[in-house]
Amino acid sequence: MKDLLKKFENKEPEIVFNWKDAETEAEGWTVINSLRGGAAGGGTRMRKGLDMNEVLSLAKTMEVKFSVSGPAIGGAKSGINFDPNDPRKKGVLQRWYKAVSPLLKSYYGTGGDLNVDEIHEVIPFTEECGVWHPQEGVFNGHFKPTEADKINRIGQLRQGVIKVIENPKFSPDVLRKYTVADMITGFGVAEAVRHFYNIYGGDVQGKKAIVQGFGNVGSAAAFYLAEMGAKVVGIIDRDGGVINEEGFSFEEIRMMFLNKDGNKLVAQNMIPFAEINEKIWTLGADIFAPCAASRLVTKDQIDSLITNGLEVISCGANVPFADKEIFFGPIMEETDSKVSLIPDFISNCGMARVFAYFMEKKVQMTDEAIFYDISETIKKALDKAHALNSDKKNISATAFEIALKQLV
After folding, report:
1. Rounded Cα distance, 157 and 337, in Å
2. What DSSP string runs through 114-132?
3. How far apart are alpha carbons 390 and 167 in whole angstroms?
4. What is the spatial distance between Cα 223 and Cα 258, in angstroms, rounded to a whole number?
């Protein structure tokens, strides 16, 4: 696995597109790791201090993710080094998409990512540039459909991602009109835990869970974990968090979800960040879902969790460990050798899989069909890892080996 990984990491990307904004200090990159299958896909992020290396590592991560979620295409990513709170953000994004639109029409598909919203920014701004849909390049480069077929599938994709969830099993409140895009990644993170126990032995019911981050992914993961009977004992977010050693009830978690302020946890009895960051890692939990930013989880935090009975980690964040390596750094490797670590490209493949699902010919557009498809995709990936290595340890190493054999 290590040799395959080295080969994959060291391979130069096929295309690097570099842009400097004429009107602000913004700079952007699209990195296309490969045009495997004739196309590449990966979202657009914006943050101050972002550099080309970050975009490259995310492009390689996307390629591994597509080996699980489909379609069988290359990995890519776009990143803009600019403050997303700057009032000039809209203009920067509009000029960026204009510059990158030839790629988006030919062989590159994008979507929302950190600080860039799929529905309110990516879709309208790419439309202004004559791109039918942010994923049009994947249709043209990989699927090569007829014009009529392309119109049908793009229509399906457009409707599907913004589809309002009607089934109360999948929505914290059907009246608030949560969409598939709001909930699907966190759903996958929770489903990965459920499938893990079903495949490797055990039951998620009554297991104690800690969730890191309460944005889109973390809040949805907490909601679905609580719904399946896990006991969420702690949530740590940017400004603080909450602890209940007996486990919050499903209704308490649901209300925290409904009361969040954008991507921030809002709750009674909030414990300040410094204090909860001291306490939470020694609470004692069976399940840990890191769903905040990349590269936050330290070796000390993992050691404390393991000492206090940790069984499984389901990654909601891409590359959650504080390693500098693109994929398999020392913290991740050591964690994988001690507990069950479900890698990000399986547990958080929800959105990538939604895109792949809607790109197929005529699919069912019901909540049940969409969510079941994600669940089955994750189950299949864990089944494959289990067939190759039935031990509860080294799940990530095994899953990487399976993925890399398809890519190298």
Report:
1. 39
2. TTB-IIIIIHHHHHHTT-S
3. 35
4. 10
48 contact partners, CB below 8 Å, separation of at least 6: 81, 82, 83, 84
pTM over 0.85: yes
Measure the CA–CA gap between 90 and 60, rounded to whole angstroms: 28
How would you list the strands of the sheet with 231-237, edge to edge? 271-272, 240-243, 231-237, 208-212, 287-290, 312-314, 340-342
367 neighbors 81 (Cβ within 8 angstroms):
no
The three-state secondary structure class of 112 is: strand
* Residue 31, pLDDT score: 98
Torsion angle of alpha carbons 67, 70, 74, 77, nearest 10°? -100
HSE, side-chain direction, 13 A CA sphere, residue 337: 7
CB atoms within 10 A of CB 201: 9
Q: Give 277-302 pLDDT, tens digit per residue.
A: 999 999 999 999 999 988 999 999 99
Of 94, 111, 116, 105, the C-alpha closest to 157 is 111
Q: Which residue has the tokens 């050591």?
A: 334
The first and second tokens of residue 7, run together, are 């080969």
- Output DSSP code: residue 348: T
Mean pLDDT of 257-266: 94
Which of 28, 27, 38, 36 is closest to 60 using CA atoms?
Answer: 36
Dihedral, 298, 301, 291, 136 alpha carbons, nearest 10:
30
Which helix (H) or strand (E) is 406 found in, with range?
helix 395-407
Specify whether the CB–CB gap between 197 and 203 falls below 8 A. yes
User: Where do we find the tokens 């019911």?
Assistant: 205
